[in-house]
Every structure is written in C-alpha cells, then in structure tokens.
C-alpha cells in the first residue's frame, strides 16, 4: 500500500521543482503573490505540473503543518515524455499500443484501466494535465501497482498529442456509443492508440474529429452504456487478440 506524500512551504516546493523531483499537483492559496510564488508557478509551467489556486481551508485539510500557502502532492512516478516514448518504441522494434484517456476523472476507473492496460501489453497511457486524473498513491493502489510498471505521459494539449500520434503512424481508435463499427469487426492492425472518454460526457468532439475509426461495443441488455473501465478492458482485449494473431 503506497501512502501519499506531501511537500509544503515555499522553499521546499521551489527546491523540489529545481531538482526535478516528480510532483503531481501544486496547490497555492488564492491571491498569494510574491516573487517566490511566481517563480514556483514558472518552474511548474516548465515542468508540466498543474497548479491550482484554492481557498486556505483546502490547504489546511491537506496538512496542519506550516505550509505558507503552498502544498504539493508528490508523484509516485516520473511521467514519461510522449515525444520520446513513441520513437523509443519504434527503435526497440515494438508496434506501438497506447491508451489515451480524454479527461477521465475517477481514480478507481483510472486504476482499473491501468491494470487492464498492463495485463494486455499496452506500452503506455496518455492523460491530460487539466480536468483529469493523475498518478497519485490512491491511483497506484487502485491499479494493483500497474501504474508503477507502465509509462504514463501527461500532456498539456490532447489535440496536439493526438496529432503527434497520427503523424507518427499510429492509428487512432475512438470508443463511443456513436461508433459506426462494432469492435469485433474493427481492424486493429499496426500501431494503435485507443481513446477512452470522460465518465459523464464521453469523448470530446476534438478527439472524435481526429480519430481514424470510431468503434462501439455490441450489447444486448436494456442499459445502453458500460462503465468506462469495463469498456476499456473489453476493447484492450479485442485489440490484443488481433495483435497476437499477426
């Protein structure tokens, strides 16, 4: 069981960012202005670490220590760089197999998807910096440790990341109830990235617009949709089944 680790105080956060320590999220007291805080924001922006300005009550709930209006959650992993991960896969003779999470928000779903992704041989997971889950201690525990074994890339712009994947020769498959192809009839030959949407509103229009194919999961019951982690497991299995037959 991994426990969440906190960093607090202006100098501790600045030192951690300067040293390149993996940080998941930084929380700053609303209205906090000083040269040190501006420096923290700049270093966080460069490192791709989300910064959230919150009421003092939020910080006090995170820790009772003297936090000076600055608290950060340490990341259990170092996030991968997508633009380095994909070329490395090709160089190693792999056929890239990725899963992209479009603003997924539930930690337990994230953990379950990561566990399935690792079991089915996925090479990496892509998440967004904003409005998204991240790799926290809770997520690692929910994944049964899978998030410590599979690379996770956190991107600032999902459309830019998807465009990069397309330009790298990776086919984009979007999972949607609006999909026109049944997943058992879809072709998953070659490099593939499976895109799964948010628990409540599904895939964004920007992701759907960039997808090469849009697939659905055929169902026979009266309930029209599956939990996203269950749907991801089904689709990851279908993709892996085809890859194993190549």
From TrEMBL:
The RNA 2-O ribose methyltransferase substrate binding domain, residue ranges: 6-80
One Pfam family recorded for the sequence: SpoU_methylase
Oxidoreductase found in the keyword field: no
Keywords for the protein's UniProt record, in alphabetical order: Methyltransferase, Transferase
Coiled-coil features, chain-numbered ranges: none
Keyword Ribonucleoprotein assigned: no
Matches recorded under InterPro entries: Alpha/beta_knot_MTases, Ribosomal_eL30-like_sf, rRNA_MeTrfase_TrmH, SpoU_MeTrfase, SpoU_subst-bd, tRNA_m1G_MTases_N
SUPFAM superfamilies: alpha/beta knot, L30e-like
NCBIfam families per record: rRNA_methyl_3
PANTHER family registered for this protein in UniProt: 23S RRNA (GUANOSINE-2'-O-)-METHYLTRANSFERASE RLMB
Protein name as it appears in the record: 23S rRNA (Guanosine(2251)-2'-O)-methyltransferase RlmB
Organism: Porphyromonas miyakawae
Gene this chain is encoded by: rlmB
């Amino acid at each position: 069981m991994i426990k969440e680790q906190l960093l607090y105080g202006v100098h501790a956060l600045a030192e951690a960012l300067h040293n390149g320590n993996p940080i998941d999220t930084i929380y700053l007291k609303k209205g906090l202005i000083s040269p040190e805080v501006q420096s923290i924001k700049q270093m966080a922006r460069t490192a791709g670490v989300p910064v959230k300005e919150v009421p003092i009550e939020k910080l006090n709930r995170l820790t009772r220590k003297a936090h000076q209006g600055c608290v950060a959650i340490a990341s259990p992993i170092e996030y991968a760089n997508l633009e380095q991960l994909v070329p490395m896969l090709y160089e190693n003779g792999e056929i890239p197999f990725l899963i992209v999470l479009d603003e997924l928000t539930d930690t337990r779903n994230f953990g379950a998807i990561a566990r399935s992704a690792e079991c089915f041989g996925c090479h990496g997971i892509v998440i967004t910096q904003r409005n998204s889950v991240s790799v926290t201690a809770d997520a690692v525990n929910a994944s049964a440790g899978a998030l410590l074994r599979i690379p996770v890339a956190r991107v600032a712009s999902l459309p830019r990341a998807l465009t990069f994947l397309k330009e790298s020769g990776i086919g984009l498959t979007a999972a949607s109830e609006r999909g026109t192809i049944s997943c058992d009839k879809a072709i998953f030959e070659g490099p593939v990235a499976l895109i799964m949407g948010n628990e409540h509103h599904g895939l964004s229009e920007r992701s759907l617009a960039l997808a090469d194919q849009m697939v659905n999961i055929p169902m026979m019951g009266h309930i029209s949709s599956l939990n996203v982690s269950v749907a991801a497991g089904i689709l990851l299995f279908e993709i892996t089944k085809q890859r194993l037959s190549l």
